[in-house]
Write a structure and sequence with these properties.
The protein has 272 residues and is an alpha+beta fold. Helix content is 13%, strand content 31%. It has a single domain, classed as L,D-transpeptidase catalytic domain-like (Beta Barrel). A six-stranded mixed sheet has the order 1-4-3-2-11-5, with helices on one face.
């Protein structure tokens, strides 16, 4: 027969096992109750090398994953991610002093390929000639016989309030009324690749951004310009910066004595 266990030797083992179990349970409760951050954060891969002035590329075609956008006011650039992988980068011009682009975590809440500003633009006469350029309808009054024409903001992606991403002039420093201006080709790509609800993280301080000359514009390839319907496929890879070459009022071309361009209606022009 197996001899009965001595109670005097079992008691310490039982007490030790009970202690170990109690410690394990306490550790488990502690780890489960640790607060977890729920705030928007930039992807881990987004602590990259220093961005080059005018750096502009896209390699996101065929890449799967949820899109995210990170706008760096300090670097004056925007990075596009799919599934945590950076697939595109573009220079920007954010809000100037007094019209700062607000940092924070947002989402794309509206898209309008042929958007015009309801705040900034020009007062034009009955013939369409610009009488007063660079106006703000909240401050400026239209002279008799004139009417307001909003500045063009092609490929507009609203982020918050009146601020959004769109095609516009890049002078090499923050210069907008709060929007994020981009080169035309990159605005087109971002517009195509960004569904409603895409997370947008805006960080940094535009006051820390270096000042450069206007973003370099490489000559477009010698090719004809043709119309493209909305159902056509957009170009798959655009690496040269195609930016507007004149200062704008909020995003359009406005010079005294000239006519503002008419709004596009379902057709976009592009270079093959």
């Amino acid at each position: 027969m197996t001899p009965a266990a001595d109670p005097s030797t079992q008691a310490p083992l039982v007490r030790f096992a009970t202690f170990v179990l109690a410690v394990a349970c306490a550790a488990a409760v502690s780890s489960c109750s640790t607060p977890q951050s729920t705030g928007e954060q930039a992807p881990a891969s987004q602590t990259p090398r220093q961005v080059l002035h005018g750096e502009c590329w896209w390699k996101g075609d065929g890449v799967n994953g949820s899109p995210k956008i990170h706008i760096s006011l300090s670097e004056q650039c925007v990075r596009f991610y799919k599934g945590g992988e950076m697939v595109g980068i573009s220079p920007i011009s954010s809000g100037r002093e007094g019209h700062s682009t607000p940092p924070g975590a947002y989402r794309i809440i509206e898209k309008d390929r042929h958007h015009r500003s309801s705040l900034y633009g020009a007062f034009c006469d009955a013939g369409g000639q610009i009488v007063v350029p660079d106006v703000d309808v909240r401050k400026d009054r239209a002279p008799p016989g004139t009417h307001f024409v909003g500045a063009e903001m092609p490929c507009f992606m609203r982020i918050t309030g009146a601020a959004g991403m769109h095609e516009g002039f890049l002078p090499g420093y923050p210069a907008s009324h709060g929007c994020i201006r981009m080169p035309g080709n990159m605005a087109e790509i971002f517009f195509r690749e960004t569904p409603h609800g895409t997370p947008v993280l805006i960080t940094g301080n535009a006051a820390d951004a270096p000042r450069h000359d206007a973003a370099p514009v490489q000559p477009a390839p010698a090719a004809k310009v043709r119309s493209r319907s909305k159902t056509d496929e957009a170009p798959t890879s655009l690496v040269s910066v195609k930016s507007r070459t004149k200062p704008q009022s909020g995003g359009g071309f406005f010079s005294r004595g000239k006519k503002p361009p008419p709004p596009a209606r379902g057709v976009t022009l592009y270079l093959e």
